Amino acid sequence: MHYTTVASTLLVALFAQGSIAQDPAMATSTLTTVCQQAAKIPVCDLYSTSCKANGTAAACNPVSLALSACTDPVAATNSACTMFKSMCTGACANTGAVKNLLPARNASQQVAAICMEMPTMSDCQGDARCPAPDANGVSDCKSWTVYSALCKEMPDMAQCASWKTFCSSNGQIAPFCGGSAPTNSTSGGHNHGSSGNTQGATTGEKSRAITVLAGAVGMAASGLLAVMLAL
């Protein structure tokens, strides 16, 4: 009985700190479920494209991706998100969503605004174009992919300010930014060159370290649960 009580206490403490939710496997499971049901939200574009090719990118931290998915109004009420958010507190919540990634509604609005102003752009025509936003302001398309393609073609459009911010915050992550993504050169903006590369590498190393540590904590929690069931 004593060991069961101790194990229960430790499990409660881990849940309270959001440690179990920090387990990359749980975050990835949440993301997978959400993206099966709401595949066209921006974070699912990022996950299925950039993060499949480069999972170590800072923007591809599984917890950050899951938080982004579950804060997008399109997916916020998804049952997987309800479970994840109830467990992701403390250190987990402090991980933060992907920096400056637009939710589906905002990305849809930017695409609509660009295509209204520049209807002859290739991604505003044919099969590539996004339909008009629905009553909730969301287009039935991969709005983040289309928005990024439009901004890579004409990066100086006013509507691309959010895209520039996303790209400069996330290491010009491909393919949404790539080499053509402009950067803010004003004072206080992101520095580039050797110092910028060092900063990006450091961020990636921190992200990997957090992922490894979170996995270890999740395994410990699973072990405690097994002990409880055996007693």
Q: Topology, pairings included?
A:
Elements: H1 2-16, H2 24-37, H3 42-53, H4 62-71, H5 79-87, H6 91-94, H7 104-117, H8 143-153, H9 161-169, H10 194-230
Helix pairs in contact: 1-10, 2-4, 3-4, 4-5, 7-8
- Kindly name the structural category: mainly alpha
- Terminal-residue CA separation: 8 Å
Instruction: Please count the beta strands (DSSP E, at least 2 residues each).
Output: 0
Catalogue the unreliable spans.
3-18, 180-231
Major sheet characteristics: none
Rounded to an integer in angstroms, the radius of gyration calculated over CA atoms is 20 Å
Explain what you see.
By secondary structure, this protein is mostly helical. The chain has 2 domains: 2-98 and 197-230, no CATH class; 104-190, no CATH class. Helix content is 58%, strand content 0%. The protein has helices at residues 2-16, 24-37, 42-53, 62-71, 79-87, 91-94, 104-117, 143-153, 161-169, 194-230. Helix 1 (2-16) runs antiparallel to helix 10 (194-230) and helix 3 (42-53) runs antiparallel to helix 4. The chain is globular. The chain starts with a helix and ends with a helix.
Describe this protein with a few key phrases.
231 residues; mainly alpha; 2 domains; disordered N terminus
